[in-house]
Description:
By secondary structure, the chain is mainly α. It has helices spanning 13-25, 35-55. It has two helices and no strands. It is extended, with a radius of gyration of 16 Å.
Amino acid sequence: MRPKRIQSVDVDWRLVEEVRDAVVYLAGTADRTTITGLVRHAIRRELGRLRRKHLDGEPFPPRRHDPPAGRPVSVDAPDAGS
């Protein structure tokens, strides 16, 4: 198992506040979570959707380099934008 890494992302403050509100509100329910848990779940769900859409559910191929920070990546990926 790979060690965990910390990855900073730029998120609109309104979204961060809604996440914090949700975590506090859900504390006493069956959907109790943490900010980290909510973010991990959301990322896994979105990656699954993108794998199904672009790769018939298969994993994304390993990257050859890290994407540049702060801006979208434009590459010659097959089916990019479909």
